[in-house]
Each structure stands twice: as structure tokens, then as C-alpha cells.
Amino acid sequence: MTDSFLNARPSTIVRPPAPPKKWTRGRVGGHFLVGLWATLLIGLVVYLYSAWNIELIQKYGPSYLEGLKTTIGLVSSSILLGALISVPVALGRMSKNRIASAIAYAYVYFFRGTPLIAQVFLFYYGLGSFRPQLEAVGLWTFFREAWYCALLAFSLNTAAYQAEILRGAVRSVPLGQWEGAASLGISKVVTFWKVILPQALIVALRPYGNEIILMIKGSAIVALITVYDLMGYTRLAYSRTFDFQAYLWAAIIYLILVEILRHIWDWLERRLTRHLIR
Amino acid sequence: MEGSIALLGFGEGGWGPSIASGVLVTVSLALATLPVGLAIGFFVALGKQSPERSVKLAANMYTTIFRGLPELLTLFVVYFGAQIGIQKLGELLGYEGTLEINSFIAGMFALGVVFSSYASEVFLSAFRAIPKGQYEGGYAIGLSSGQTMRMVILPQLIRIALPGLANLWMILLKDTALVSAIGLADILRQTGVAARVTKHAFLFFGTACMIYLVLAILSSFVIDAIERSSARSGVKR
């Protein structure tokens, strides 16, 4: 009886209408700020529309695309190379051998403690002063090219950051995981690959994504050592035309690139951690 | 070896004085940017955790835009954009000559904007770490919301945000090297000039790297001291 009484609810719940939202100071200010952003964005669109110059687009559009390709190629190859280099560095950082860990620490400290732009200059201009020696070893053709120097500097730089990400992620896996695998008689190497790494990589996913975004943003500096990436062609277009829209287009492209990557990464993280959601 | 010491020294033909002035520019730029970035970042973080949707949207747009742009591009956009803007403004006001924007100010503004968009995230997560009871306790003893923020929340907030902000300071210190691209005579620019004149590029750019490392080590000492003193004022557990 009581059961049916409890269940006897009206099929639709009629709620009182929400009280009208007051125009508090915060709300007015917020609308003002959003309005400001909207004005800025509309202003940008209007400016780009009014400054639309088909000759300019025809002349520099393809080169922007070329620059974008260079940027993406440089970033993806240095991220991959850096991932390869980061493994021994991370192992060195975690190793009990004091010499190995000191070397790895010094490497990481140097590349994380100095500006990327200074490292790129050091590799491109600095190694250029060893030209006779490099020619003797036959490496001069490599170091002559700004692109290769940038690739080397970026790879070594991102390797230092990735090594720290990897180390932190492996450390974040509880020790019990190692012990559990050991008690099952699984060898250390297999434990690392099959038990620890899959868990560590999920932790490392977000920092890795951030590192790639930082690398995309950081790659703009290769324009200063005569590599024609997106930023390089932008500078070229600006220095020839003195048209400010050159920079605005580059900003839009970079923003779209970073946002696409960020959304891919969000999706990837949701997808890879779905078994962890309780 | 002796030649390199003479080149880096302060004597005749030594580049010591000009590099030292570069260090001064780098350090003062970073120190000048810090309060600007912290203040903007704090208010953007306040906006992000506001219950008002429009404020949140405006704050999130700020972060999205300035975290997505390369720092170098932001710098160029600010530098050249402000140049054009000021020129236009001058023409409107009837000023005929050319107006130059100070590259120090442009660098400070661009780096401050980038710093603040990262700092807002640090502040936001620190805000989230403070329990609601702290606000309620403040209101319960009759503090206004401004007083609660200043006397109850802020001291705890700073303590929680300190490691993240220290990290951002290190990034800021490194990002100042970018202003050499708009002609500010910082460490990298001065060593670059020396490298071009003397043809000892490796020596001078290596020196630049070492100076940045020393600055990083020095600031880590200062940060440690600040962290220790802020931990002292916290609750003993």
C-alpha cells in the first residue's frame, strides 16, 4: 500500500519558473568583456576582409602552406627523435649508477635551463666556427644546413623534457606493480614493457601533449636562423609588403593548429582512460 | 684559452661590459614582466572561476588565444601592431613625425600576456585546492568578500601556487631571450653581436647559455628561500 502511495507521483513535475537573473556588476562586466572580445574578433575579420588583396594571397598563400609543412615536418621529426633520445636519458636519470645519473642530470639541466633560441644559435652559429674540424670529419654538410641544426637542437631539447616526463610517469606507477609482477615470476624487462609502461604512458599522455604544443610554438624561432617555416615565410611576406595582415594570418594558422592538436589530445585521453572511469 | 678569457673579460677588447649590460636588460625585463603577468593572471583566474558564464567565457578566450600563439609571434604582433596603431593614432591627432615604440615596453607587454595566461591556470588550480569553508568562515566572522579574499584566501593561495609560479618564472626568464629578435640589447643580442664581430660564435653563445644557467640556479635559490619562509607561516602539521 505504502509502496503504491510513494510511487503515486504526477507524471510531469511542474517547477516554478526560475527567478529572472539580476544584472549584477559581475554579469554586466562579463558581458562587457565578451563584447570586447567579440568586437576585437569582428574587427579582425573586417580588417582582413577590407585588406583582402588577391594578389597578396596568390603570391604568399602557397608559401604559407609550404611553411606550415616545414613547421609540421620539423616538429614531428624532432618529437620522434627526441622520444628516442629521451629513453636512455630517463634510464640514466633513474639509474643507481652515480656517474650515469650525474651525466643525465647535467644534460637535462642544461637543456631545460637555457632558452631554446640560445641552443639553436649555439648549434647553428656556434658549431659553424668549427668548420675546419667538421669538414675533416665530413660532418660539415650536415651542420651547414640550418634545417638540420634546428632539428638537432630541437631533438636534444625535447629529449630533455621528454626524459623528465617519462621518469615522472614511471615513478608514478606504484612499487606494488613491480612487486606483483615479480611475485608472478615475470622478468624485469617484461614487467617494464607489459605492466609498468602501459600505466605510465597514460599518466604521461597529457604532459606529452603539452610538450608537442610547446614544440610547435617554439619552432617559430627557426625563422631567426633562416629556415623558412610558417614564421619564416610570414617574416618574408611582412618585410616585402609591410602589410600587417601577414602576421595576423600566421597567428590564425598557429591558433588553429594548436587547437586541433589540443582537441585530438582531449579525445585521445578520454578514449585511453575509459577503463579507469568508475 | 687565454684569448677567450680576454675576449670575455672587462679589459681592452673584452666584451664583458656589453654582456653585463645585456644581463642587466634580461633581468630587469623579467622582473618588470613578473608583476604585470601575476596581476593579470590572478584576475583572469578569478574570471575563470566566476559563476557568471560570460566572465568565464571571456577569461577562457584570453587563455586559449595567448597560450596557442607562439611567443615569438605574439612579440612581433605586439611590436609591429602597436607601432602601426600608435602611428595611426598620431596621424589622427595631427602628429606628423614618426613614433617609435620602445622594444622594452613591447617585450614586457607580450611576455606579460603570455605569462599571465599560464599563471591564470596555476592560480585557478590553487583556487580549487582551497576549501569552500575558508570563504564561509571569512563571511561568518563578518569580513567583506574583498577582505576575505585578501586576508584569508590570498595567503593560502600564494603558498599553494608557489611551485607552479616558480616554474613559470623559469620559463619567463628563458622567454626573455626572444626579445633579442625585436632589437632589445639583452644577453643573446649582445653575445650575438660579439660573435659576429669576433667570429668566436661558439664561445659567445656558449657563454650566453651559461649565463642563463647561472640565472636559473640563482633564482632557484631565491625560490627555495621564499618557499621555506612561506611554509613557515603555514599551519604546522
TrEMBL record, chain A:
According to its UniProt record, where is this protein located?
Cell inner membrane; Cell membrane
Q: Which Gene3D superfamilies match?
A: MetI-like
Which spans are transmembrane here?
32-52, 72-91, 103-125, 145-163, 212-234, 246-265
One Pfam match: BPD_transp_1
Taxonomically, the superkingdom here is: Bacteria
Keyword annotations from UniProtKB, A to Z: Cell inner membrane, Cell membrane, Membrane, Transmembrane, Transmembrane helix, Transport
Query: Its Gene Ontology biological processes?
Result: amino acid transport
One GO molecular-function entry: transmembrane transporter activity
The answer to whether UniProt assigns keyword Nuclease to this entry is no
Q: Any keyword Transmembrane? A: yes
Question: What residues does the ABC transmembrane type-1 domain cover?
Answer: 68-265
Q: What InterPro entries would the database entry show?
A: AA_ABC_transptr_permease_3TM (IPR010065), ArtM/GltK/GlnP/TcyL/YhdX-like (IPR043429), MetI-like (IPR000515), MetI-like_sf (IPR035906)
GO cellular component terms attached to this protein's record:
ATP-binding cassette (ABC) transporter complex
- Its membrane topology: Multi-pass membrane protein
- Return the similarity comment: Belongs to the binding-protein-dependent transport system permease family. HisMQ subfamily.
Q: What is this protein called?
A: Amino acid ABC transporter permease
- Provenance organism: Phyllobacterium endophyticum
UniProtKB/TrEMBL annotation, chain B:
A GO cellular-component term linked to this record: ATP-binding cassette (ABC) transporter complex
State where the protein is found. Answer: Cell inner membrane; Cell membrane
Record InterPro entries: AA_ABC_transptr_permease_3TM, ABC_transp_permease_HisMQ, MetI-like, MetI-like_sf
Membrane-spanning residues? 20-44, 65-84, 104-127, 139-162, 200-223
Q: Which UniProt keywords apply?
A: Cell inner membrane, Cell membrane, Membrane, Transmembrane, Transmembrane helix, Transport
UniProt xrefs under SUPFAM superfamilies? MetI-like
ABC transmembrane type-1 domain residues: 23-223
**Which membrane topology describes this protein?**
Multi-pass membrane protein
Q: Which Gene3D superfamilies match?
A: MetI-like (1.10.3720.10)
GO molecular-function terms, A-Z: transmembrane transporter activity
Task: Give the matching Pfam families.
Answer: BPD_transp_1
Domain of life (superkingdom): Bacteria
Q: Which protein family is it in?
A: Belongs to the binding-protein-dependent transport system permease family. HisMQ subfamily.
This one is known as ABC transporter permease
